[in-house]
Design a protein that fits this description.
The complex is a heterodimer of chains A (343) and B (450). Chain A has helices at 50-62, 90-117, 143-152, 219-238, 297-309, 320-336, and strands at 3-16, 23-31, 37-40, 69-72, 124-126, 131-134, 140-142, 159-166, 183-196, 201-212, 269-275. Chain A is an alpha+beta fold and 343 residues long. Chain A has two domains: 3-15 and 181-340, Aldehyde Oxidoreductase, domain 4, CATH 3.30.365.10; 18-165, Aldehyde oxidase/xanthine dehydrogenase, molybdopterin binding domain (Aldehyde Oxidoreductase, domain 4, 2-Layer Sandwich). Chain A has a four-stranded mixed beta sheet with strand order 1-9-10-11. In chain A, helix 4 (219-238) packs across helix 5. Chain B is an alpha+beta fold and 450 residues long. Chain B contains 13 helices and 17 strands. The two termini of chain B are 31 Å apart. Classes of the chains: A alpha+beta (343), B alpha+beta (450). The interface between A and B is large, with 127 and 129 residues.
Chain lengths: 343, 450
């Protein structure tokens, strides 16, 4: 019985967005009489924090406090069109649409403030605390006062419309030439594993990654995606399958008691550093991080297993049965033909 | 959007701050309202009678026993569905109609829906679904992607070949440079066969919806779809009703991972609400989520690289078989992603890729986190280590040498922009205390010097 350790690396890229047809996402923003900004959109939150990060983008672009921004994404009657939450596209598309809508709404807000303060709109700044300030004199007025007066004194509509659109990219049938995505994120993961040669059990000890995903608009949410994806990568590599005898359909698991996934005891230490290099077209330089986070852990773990025991696996998941069979096969071939053992 | 016109955040504002997720406290304390929490007066429940066979002809459906179950309200069969045959990517003009909301003459996978039972309670609906008597004639089934493409294989599709048609070919092709010539001139050839297994999305919240008929002739649909508008459009299409009659509510979903974009529940539940005049709930049980809902594609990749003694990949040829199961759903989209990502973050000057979307009698597979790319990354990154071993280079060096730079052309002829692989690898090496050679540390993803 022996526990052997190994280290493996993998590097990946991942596209933000992918389209077969035109890909629009639209946002509408309107202010209330008291300076609350309502963003209406149809983009679905999957637990990743979309509503939170979209509100952050809206507040930043409007120049108002985050707590005065309300995001409505629950109703396809009142929320304008979104293609959907997939393809690591939604923060990128909806974020850009919200910035565009915020620019328009902010413009009207500053017009109203300028009239009230008897200055030009270009002389005004927002302080992000709910005030609009004349840059030179520091004279100020609250966003709430401006919104009230826009409604009840001057009849101004503080609202904005924004769209992000990517036209369909046709694929050349002969060469495959196409322009399907907006930008590429990158990651490199180093996996450390321990292989128990008597049982065939593989334990992932540590996954250390560097992620380049544009500017992190909410570092905590980005970290959440990285940790969740790394866990999914461990699960995909070592445990999960709906078809244990793929391609045959026998013995398909029907519940969580039969469908193996790692629990807390099997979860590795997961560490990641996020490099904040802005992209050229995401909102505030963002890139999509949603899907890619399982991708580098998978081959990094497979490469680490090779480093540990000298067996390269080409089929997932790498179950204890496969590890033991491979070790046994290698032992036998080493006994028979020592000269050709190993790869 | 003007590319290159990216705003810079103020720095002390909301963007860049680790703001707590707005609803996470409600998620973890059980207060968030999910679809299954929607309970309406007079609500009926839908449960499906499904195929036990991977491939069979349906001879006869007998509802006599099912109708006797106390609480039985009504059954829906294929004849009740206005536009029963569809394909979801047909919404954007892609693919042929191939899947039926309810099977009529043939079933192509275990779990394919045949009869939708509506009853007063979920228990009664389940009981009645079990008592639907269906006579089948079993047909030969095919499960393996390469067997499915072999001559004489059982026909899963209705057009003769078990492959999706891409512009007149049974595969999507990418051609860049001259892969054959470059392969011949290479110092080494590295071949690999990689097999990705299907996995389940396993969301905490299973797929489902609740539909209520409204007095103005509309239907309110509470759905956990990942794409409100796409599910709305598909429902209108299958029911052949104007979209104005559909009011979709959703937006907060208990896990998706790509598993909630197929539009499997909304059309049938809406039809049920329409035909019974009652609110109808249709929520997958955990075993339906496991054995009926789409999975990640099984993907088989044959990858051949021509490599120089310096570890540079000068040619790559790939033949990939993406197993979509019985229906293509979103798999053609995976094919496109696969086609555009088979060189990974590397510059490969000569490439030839053939990517098939193959039909088998397996549970359909469809969108799942990274599909088309996750599988490619697995194959490519194991391949990179083999190239390193063969050329006597370390795994870091071989990746740095092949890394793409801004301005390089990828095999699908898109110039690289926003390249940062080199920088990510430098950071990862630093994090684990791996000392990189000075020439690797000095590299950057900036355009190559001409």
């Amino acid at each position: 019985m022996a526990k052997v350790t190994g280290r493996g690396i993998a590097a990946v890229n991942y596209p933000t967005g992918m389209n077969l047809g035109g890909d629009p996402t639209i946002a509408l923003i309107h202010a209330s009489t008291s300076g609350v900004f309502n963003i209406s959109i149809s983009s679905v939150e999957l637990g990743q924090g979309l509503k939170t990060v979209l509100a952050q983008i809206g507040a930043e672009a409007l120049g108002v406090p985050l707590e005065t921004v309300v995001l409505h994404n629950d109703d396809a009657d009142t929320g304008p069109y979104c293609t959907g939450t997939f393809a690591s596209r939604t923060t990128h598309r909806a974020g850009n649409a919200i910035i565009a809508a915020a620019e328009e709404a902010r413009g009207v807000m500053l017009e109203e403030a300028a009239e009230l303060l008897a200055v030009e709109p270009g002389e005004l700044a927002t302080d992000g605390q709910g005030n609009i300030v004349v840059r030179s004199t520091k004279q100020s007025i609250t966003v709430a006062e401006v919104c009230s007066s826009a409604h009840f004194v001057h009849g101004r509509n503080i609202s904005g419309r924004g769209i992000f659109f990517r036209a369909k990219s046709p694929v050349d049938p002969d060469t495959g030439a196409m322009d399907p995505d907006s930008t590429e994120a990158h990651a490199c993961t180093v996996a450390e594993v321990e292989v128990e040669t008597e049982t065939g059990q593989v334990r992932v000890l540590r996954l250390t990654s560097a992620y380049e995903v544009g500017r992190a608009l909410n570092p905590r949410l980005v970290h959440g995606q990285i940790v969740g994806g790394a866990w999914m990568g461990v699960s995909h590599t070592l445990y999960e399958t709906t078809a244990p005898y793929y391609p045959l359909i026998d013995h398909a698991p029907e519940s969580f008691s039969e469908y193996l996934m790692p629990g807390p005891a099997e979860s590795p230490v997961i560490e990641a550093e996020v490099l904040g290099i802005p992209s050229s077209n995401g909102p505030y330089g963002q890139k999509g991080v949603g899907e890619m986070t399982a991708n580098s852990p998978i081959p990094a773990i497979v490469n680490a297993i090779y480093d540990a025991i000298g067996v390269r696996f080409y089929e997932l998941p790498v179950t204890p049965e496969k590890v033991l069979r491979a070790l046994e096969e290698r032992r036998q071939s080493a006994t028979l033909e020592p000269a050709t053992a190993g790869r | 959007m003007n590319e290159g016109n990216v705003r810079v955040p103020a720095g002390d504002g909301p963007v860049g701050a680790s703001v707590e997720q707005r609803d996470s406290r409600w998620h973890v304390s059980g207060h968030t309202i999910y679809v299954d929490d929607v309970i309406l007066p007079g609500m009926a429940h839908m449960v499906l009678a499904r195929s036990p066979f991977p491939h069979a002809r349906i001879r006869r459906i007998d509802l006599t026993d099912a109708q006797k179950v106390p609480g039985f309200v009504r059954a829906l069969t294929a004849a009740d569905v206005p536009k029963n045959i569809y394909t979801i990517l047909g919404l954007i003009g892609f693919g042929l109609d191939e899947e039926r909301a309810l099977a009529d003459e043939r079933v192509r996978y275990v779990g394919e829906p045949i009869v939708a039972i509506i009853a007063d309670t979920r228990v009664a609906a389940s009981e009645a679904a079990k008592l639907v008597r269906i006579d089948y004639e079993e047909l030969p089934a095919v499960f393996d992607v390469e067997e499915a493409l072999a001559p004489g294989a059982p026909a899963v599709t209705e057009w003769g070949i078990n492959a999706f048609n891409f512009d007149g070919r049974p595969f999507r092709q990418v051609r860049f440079g001259d892969a054959d010539a470059a392969m011949k001139g290479a110092d080494h050839v590295v071949e690999g066969r990689y097999q990705m297994s299907p996995i389940e999305h396993a969301p905490v919240e299973t797929t489902g919806c609740v539909v209520r008929p409204e007095p103005d002739g509309r239907f309110t649909v509470w759905s956990n779809t990942q794409a409100l508008n796409m599910s709305l459009d598909l429902t209108a299409h299958i029911l052949q009703i104007p979209t104005r009659r559909l009011h979709f509510i959703g937006g907060t979903v208990g896990g998706g991972f790509g598993g909630k974009v197929d539009g499997m529940v909304e059309p049938l539940a809406t039809l049920g609400a329409w035909l019974t005049g009652r609110p109808v709930k249709y929520v997958y049980s955990r075993d339906e989520e496991m054995i009926v809902s789409s999975t990640r594609n099984g993907v088989r990749i044959y990858m051949t690289d021509g490599v120089t003694n310096d570890g540079l990949i000068v040619a790559r040829k790939v033949r990939s078989y993406i197993d979509c199961g019985a229906y293509s759903r979103h798999t053609p989209y995976a094919v496109q992603k696969h086609a555009a990502n088979l060189a990974g973050p590397y510059f490969i000057p000569n490439a030839a890729f053939d990517i098939y979307c193959v039909y088998t009698n397996r549970q359909p597979s469809s969108a799942m986190r990274g599909f088309g790319v996750t599988e490619a990354s697995f194959a490519m990154e194991v391949q990179m280590d083999r190239i390193a071993e063969l050329t006597g280079l370390d795994p870091w060096t071989v990746r740095f040498r092949n890394a793409y730079h801004d301005g390089d052309l990828r095999p699908h002829r898109k110039p690289v922009e926003d390249a940062t692989l080199i920088e990510a690898m430098q950071a990862a090496a630093r994090l684990v205390g791996h000392r990189l050679a000075p020439e690797l540390l000095a590299m950057s993803s900036k355009p190559r010097e001409v």
